[in-house]
Amino acid sequence: MIEKADQIFILLSHWLVSFLPAWLQAAAMVLLGVVAIVVTFPALFAVTVLLERKGLGRMQNRYGPNRVGPYGIFQPIADGIKSLTKEDIVPRSADAVVHFMAPVFLVVVVFMGYAVLPMGRNMTLVNMDAGLLFFFAIGASSELSVFMAGWSSRNKYSLLGAMRAVAQMISYEVPLLMSSLAVVMITGSLSPNKIVDAQNQYTYGLPHWYIFTPWGFAGFLLFAVAATAETNRSPFDLPEGESELVAGYFTEYSGFKFALFFLGEYVGMMGISGLGTTLFLGGYSAPFSWLQWVPSWCWFFGKVMLSMCVFIWVRGTLPRLRQDQLMNFAWKFVLPLTLLNLMVAALWRFMGEGWLRWVVCSAILLLAYTVMGRVGMRREHFGPRSYRYAE
Amino acid sequence: MTPLTGYLLVAALLFAIGLAGALTRRNAILVLIGIELMLNAANLNLIAFWRYGPNPEALTGMMFAIFSIAVAAAEAAVGLGLVIQIHRHAHTTDLDAMNRMKG
Amino acid sequence: MSLVFYVIAGLSVAGALAAVLLKNTVHCALALTVAFAGLALLFLELDAQFAGFAQILIYIGAVAILVVFAILLTRGSETPKDTVYSRHWIVGLVTAAGIFAVLGWAVLHSTVALPRETTKPEVTVMDIGNALMGRYVLPLEIVALLLTAALIGAVIVAMHDKEGAQ
Fold first, then answer.
1. Does residue B13 lie within any of the structural domains?
2. Is residue B102 part of a domain?
3. Prediction ipTM score
4. What is the pTM assigned to this prediction?
5. Which CATH number fits domain C1-79: 2.60.40.2230, 1.10.10.60, 1.20.120.1200, 3.30.70.1170?
6. Residue from C25, C84, C86 to probe the interface with B (highest B Cβ count within 10 Å)
7. Which of A133, A188, A190 is closest, CB to CB, to C57?
8. CA distance A205 to A187
9. Nearest C-alpha of chain B: how many angstroms from C134?
């Protein structure tokens, strides 16, 4: 019974596919998987948008949307209808082909990333040996669509927003990869399935999730920071800051194309949260061994939605970082810490079991964090002001 | 025509297109684009020979191609830095206009 | 020769042609990205998954963006005053055509010694890792040094000259 609930989607798809002739069945399985992903994640996107608006509203001491339906639950539907029926304005001097391709490219690329995430037991769409590399390669391609959007609008502010966004995304690409490299090193494989299998074990009822190790905890925090910057979320959302650059690189987009950008951003956030849960939070494994009766896909989606809630929470709490502070933070703080984290993970692996490795690794990481925080992030001291008058 | 011949012909075609681009365009950046196309064609050649060659377990072709990708990326970075600096100096990237050694 | 190969090869060649023929430089860079993607798909078709994903990650994720940034920083996206082709374009075209002819002739006339169909090699990332740390460790270290030198070199070459105090 528990097995059936756990594998219900797999059993359902096998049953549906059994109606087709044998030579068509493999393709139909893949197609069913794709359709499931394309249906589920935009639905989650709608839920997330509502959650964000209500959540941000409550954090800012106001109600969110509450007119459309009880507690505003039909707001995403109203938003969808609005964006579909709004006029699609393309500026006359804009580059029509590139202007059209940019949101399409973004949406295609972010959906492709879901192919390697293990969403439940046996529920990975494509079981690739180098799955993690595939995810990062596809994620790196999404930067190009941001640039395409900003450049094709022939608008100074869009272009500026696009350049800033691309510079930010490139800078945080390296810490993102390096913080997941520690996980790959300890697991010994680039396949997300094997990474989740390595975390799916329990000692005294507690799971072997990587976040419960010192290097895993530091790695998770660094991954979270880099993921927030990669998806251009607050506090790293200067490129789309409403008060600075109108709307940044999608100023000139209206109607459905804007909705596609919005969809692409949130679906990308969910994808990278999915990767974070796979790498550090144990993917589809349950928190305690006596909770394994809950289906595995419940845990995966629960953890992803929890990450989205944390994203929203951070957005409502922290102020925005300036561009140079952002870049400084990336290159001078996050990147050295990820390198150190990699070495600490190696140390953890070779120190053998026992309490000593916990103490040593935690001490090294805490020391590094404190020292880098004091030394690397010193505030600039300005000298006495000098005045220059117009002659 | 064997599959290997097909891949080698595609690689030769890409190489020729890249060479034509590098030799006929004015903008210095397009010359670099042509060079990147040539390097990619060479990588395709390497991987095709690795796959259809006598000893694919030794991974020689794939390793060669990966190192070539890394070196090409480094060379693109330095080349584009040079082009930016030249633009700052001569205020143009037109290669036909840069035909004197004097600055 | 499968249909998939023809489609992907057609895509790559079309992208490459667009990259060298279009007038607008940014369009050329985007067409180059299409050519890179087509080549990555060709690598995947040749069962070289690691090389294919590395191609996407490095070329589309980094080199294409570098090219685009360089175009923007050198005002390449403005319309050029003269034609985009150099004065002696015919020489370049003839040279490239000649080289393609020689290469094509060599390919079509000399593949008698190679076997027709080989079994698919089972390459895991573990094998690549072992090779990189075993037999190919020296090239790996040299490439690391090269990349560091290129990094420092690119920063120094493209740095603003410090002007004297006004």
1. yes
2. no
3. 0.91
4. 0.91
5. 1.20.120.1200
6. C86
7. A133
8. 21
9. 12
